[in-house]
Amino acid sequence: MGWTANDIPDQTGRTAVVTGANSGIGYCAAKELARRGALVVLACRSEERGQAAADRLVAEVPEARAVFQRLDLGDLGSVRAFAEEFAGDRLDLLVNNAGVMALPYTQTADGFETQFGVNHLGHFALTGLLLPKLLATPGARVVSVSSGMHAIANVDLGDLNSERRYRRWIAYGRSKSANLLFIHELARQLETMGADLVAAAAHPGYAETNLQTAGAKMEGRKAAERVAVVGNRIIGQSAAAGALPTLYAATAPDVAPDSFIGPRFLGWRGAPNRSWRASWTKDDRAGEMLWTASEQLTGVTYKF
């Protein structure tokens, strides 16, 4: 049968931040962590949806401790405000889950191409700003949610914001490769300093969430939206099943630094297992270059 949410170790006394936790995989991950005793911070862009999700979680798991805190990953000012307002001296788990997929070309509040800005730069800045608390917490972890679709495109270090040419799916693949390259470089730096902090990545396979339809809805592409809905129903596994690789990477005792966890069956569905990843996501030189560029673009310098 494989690993399930019932195998999550006791999380009592631990604090977790889950981005994009108002729906889909993020909500399911937050709920299971809270069910196991963690204090979970639902970091979401919409105050209305985020607070509603926290209320729903507590209604579904009455013993849960879950709070909403606003975070807009497309606005570095919001990212800084979140880190400054985050209460407590410890942070056991940061789940970089929020993301956007295959959107028409738009820019974040800071002028970055939205998929790169939200999926990578926002989480890069958030992790760096919360790093002191993560390093101060024994056994802490950072888990970034990538995608099997990272395989369609490597990061273009000469055109990070897709200024020369924008293709929505290529931009998405690049942002998901950036997630993996970020975790690779973070794990490498943590190992060099001997830190008690594990950086790992996960992907959900094909899970039925609203991510697949968001881009088509934005542009009013009804046919594309219908295709995505049908694909979700026929191929997709549930959001709860899609959250299992993230939960495994976040809590299982045998997760090594720079692991990439995904569904067992063809990377699409099934119990969590070690996942294939493109060779370019483990390129040390590319990781260093993306890291340097990300610090310059966000203004966030990591203090190890």
Automatic annotation (TrEMBL):
Keywords annotated in UniProt: Oxidoreductase
Pfam families (alphabetical): adh_short (PF00106)
Domain of life of the native organism: Bacteria
Gene3D superfamilies reported in the protein's UniProt record: NAD(P)-binding Rossmann-like Domain
SUPFAM superfamilies named in the record: NAD(P)-binding Rossmann-fold domains
InterPro entries in UniProt: NAD(P)-bd_dom_sf (IPR036291), SDR_fam (IPR002347)
Family as reported in the entry's similarity comment: Belongs to the short-chain dehydrogenases/reductases (SDR) family.
Protein name: Oxidoreductase
Organism, as annotated: Streptomyces fildesensis
